[in-house]
Amino acid sequence: MLVTEFDYHLPPELIAQEPLSQRDATRLMTVERDGGRIGEIPFRGIADLFRPGDLLVINDTRVIPARLHGHKESGGKTEIFLVRRRPGDDETWHCLIRSSKPPRPGVTVLLPEGVRAIVREPGEGETWLVSFTPGEGFQGWLDRNGAMPLPPYIRREADAADRDRYQTVFARNRGAVAAPTAGLHMTAGLLDEIAGRGVRVVPVTLHVGLGTFMPIRVERLEDHRMHRERYHISPATAEAINGCRREGGRVVALGTTVCRTLEQAAAADGTIAAGEGEADIFIYPGYRFKAVDALITNFHLPKSTLLMLVSAFAGRDLLFRAYGEAVAGRFRFFSYGDAMFIF
Questions:
Q1: What is the pTM of this model?
Q2: Which of 23, 225, 328, 340 is the most buried (most CB within 10 A)?
Q3: If DSSP codes are grouped into helix, strand and coil, which group holds residue 46?
Q4: What architecture does CATH give domain 67-145?
């Protein structure tokens, strides 16, 4: 398949630049795979779409303030974007670096509060390994001095409000550099209402990384390779998922990050194994889903891996018809935009 088969026209004004005043005030498009019916309800009515015995799986990753601004010792402005911590080393990270000249080993970037970032060597993909020194209390320093990593289609600098709104209400485990955006609509009250319908809510952790926003640079889907993203599934969550499937309930994934985690970890029969790993699964039409029965997701960028995943789940023709209706109906797109429930 060709990447160009997943392009569509999106008027720029439909790209949401700010979140709405209330998380659950967004619109929710409903897409029924059997019969191809497309509808709409307010997101705050989503509990009505669940059935007793269903299981909702959320991603409890927490976005770190991954964007850092400093300058080289020579004076040149430099931006460092934290991508992924090197395992076992809290102060060395795979980073993207933007400056007037290409980075090279040994370059030092001066950051606030006297912290220095030393470029070590090329890392994975387009990243560089960068060590931060002094490293004592690095996480606290990062919280004080880093900016939230809003995606590039949000054409403004992150502000204080984004520290809350570009984070889910159930974010717990630090490590993501992009939000699991389907979860941004959920409130504690909505989760309680869903649980009150006889639905169990359980977490997984997938630290969203570069794969979420890096463009595909090949023509054929089969030639693309995903960046790895760390995930964790607890024994309690694995047992809840497996029990739901045994009892005939639906496993509902809140977002593509949950979907990728479960499909990465699933055996051929859909059984989920507890544990940690790195997700590099690339899901596109033709893929046969093993673990996920319904999907809540935002509207995604043209020609993106996330759009391809959702096309695989809903069927490409039905999904593109839904996107056409979303454009015509002036839905809001991408991270701070509206959502859809595909079942």
A1: 0.95
A2: 340
A3: helix
A4: Beta Barrel (2.40)
